[in-house]
Design a protein that fits this description.
By secondary structure, the chain is of the alpha+beta class. It contains 3 helices and 5 strands, in the order αβααββββ. It folds into 2 domains: about 70 residues, no CATH class; about 60 residues, OB fold (Dihydrolipoamide Acetyltransferase, E2P). A 5-stranded antiparallel beta sheet has the order 3-2-1-4-5, with no helix packed on it. Strand 4 and strand 5 form a beta hairpin. Helix 1 packs parallel to helix 3. It is elongated.
Length: about 160
């Protein structure tokens, strides 16, 4: 298998793993289904676009490093030369894999400032979902198992 093919497979694996992770308010984790949630009424005061930084679990660096080391070790003439090239290309692959993982798991989100009925305020950051919220909307803060999401209140 060529070095280009190995690198392509590594990049595809990192992107596929990154696509599995989401913090969208439209996606509910299996463990949160059929659980009672606490609900608080409030009014949306403001909304601001933010970016949730990508994760660095080490998977991207590991895949990139191993792929780079294997691809680099097959180059060069002598055994010592192949080992040095494999080490250098492996390190470069680890850096590239880490960057690819971080960029592929980055997510656009909203910071929501909500005033509760009792006058208290809460700031909540959640990924952008299909629902469009605007300041002045009556909203519900839904808390399930330590996770919080904001949704428009029914009229």
């Amino acid at each position: 298998m060529s070095g280009f093919m190995r690198m392509s497979l590594s990049v595809a694996l990192v992107l596929a793993l990154g696509a599995c992770a989401t913090s969208s308010p439209d996606v509910v984790q299996r463990g949160d289904a059929q659980r009672m949630a606490q609900v608080q009424d409030g009014v949306l005061l403001s909304i601001r676009t933010v970016t949730i930084d990508g994760s660095q679990s080490g998977i991207g660096a590991t895949v990139g490093g191993v792929t780079g080391a294997v691809a680099g070790a097959t180059r060069g003439g002598s055994n010592a030369e192949s080992n040095v090239i494999g080490l250098l290309v492996g390190a470069a692959g680890a850096v590239a894999g880490n960057a690819i993982e971080r960029m592929s798991t980055r997510e656009e989100a909203n910071e929501l400032l909500v005033q509760l009925k009792g006058g208290e305020r809460r700031a909540i950051i959640q990924a952008k979902g299909s629902e469009t919220l605007v300041p002045g909307d009556a909203v519900l803060i839904v808390t399930t198992g330590g996770k919080v999401r904001v949704t428009r209140a029914p009229r």
